[in-house]
Design goal:
Helix content is about 5%, strand content about 40%. It has about 220 residues and is mainly beta. The protein has one domain. The N terminus is likely disordered. Keywords: Membrane, Transmembrane, Transmembrane helix.
Length: about 220
């Protein structure tokens, strides 16, 4: 009697995929979704609000306020002046006195800065200034443009508003940090803004935190 063909009495063994293979497949799949190994986006910087304190390395900074102030004209021939004031409480954590400085004109030029205000890499919205903003400090009731070691100092960065300029509802600050390191061609240590090199052989500051300040209005003085 002829036996039937095409069927096997031997049970099939299950195909075992090693666990490492599954892990690799998962990683490759996620990488493909993100656009490749070299295109994974950088994590967003921490988001801070009014009153927050940020350790910038060289400075400990509290983001106090953003206010619209008005200076009334001294006489009938003068004119009222409106300003947007960004107010900070800054403590120099270094060992040497440093100037308050000025915010950079553009983010890509900020990496050479060594002052507190140079760490305000980007201010949004942009407020156009013919001669740039003013920056000044008040420590122990004395006006100054310097930050002395260990002395909490109120720093104001002031922007002049035009007669027809609409004040913003809020201001967003991209803030950099500092690190104490030697120079490129010497071994002398100093505070420098933390930056990273771009594909265009330029340097951009790393954003340590992004701070959002609501804008309030003060009574004219």
């Amino acid at each position: 009697m002829t036996e039937a063909t095409g069927a096997s009495s031997t049970p099939k063994r299950p195909v075992v995929v090693p666990a490492i293979g599954l892990v690799l497949l998962t990683v490759l799949g996620i990488t493909a979704l993100l656009g490749g190994m070299n295109e994974v986006p950088d994590p967003a910087p921490p988001q801070l609000a009014k009153g927050a304190i940020l350790d910038q390395g060289q400075y400990a900074t509290q983001f106090v306020d953003a206010v619209i102030t008005t200076q009334k004209a001294e006489n009938e021939f003068g004119e009222d002046k409106r300003f947007l004031d960004l107010i900070f409480k800054v403590t120099n954590q270094g060992t040497e006195t440093s100037p308050v400085g000025m915010p950079p004109q553009k983010p890509e030029s900020a990496f050479t800065g060594t002052t507190f205000a140079s760490s305000l890499v980007k201010i949004t919205p942009t407020i156009k200034q013919e001669f740039g903003p003013m920056a000044f400090a008040l420590a122990k009731g004395v006006d100054s443009r310097q930050l002395h070691p260990g002395v909490p100092t109120v720093v104001t960065v002031r922007f002049r508003l035009g007669d027809t300029d609409q004040p913003p509802d809020k201001v967003v600050l991209d803030v950099a940090g500092f690190e104490y390191e030697p120079g490129f061609n010497d071994t002398n240590y100093s505070w420098k803004i933390v930056s990273e090199e771009t594909q265009e052989d330029t340097f951009l500051p790393e954003i340590k935190a992004q701070v959002t300040l609501p804008v309030t209005v003060q009574e004219p003085v």
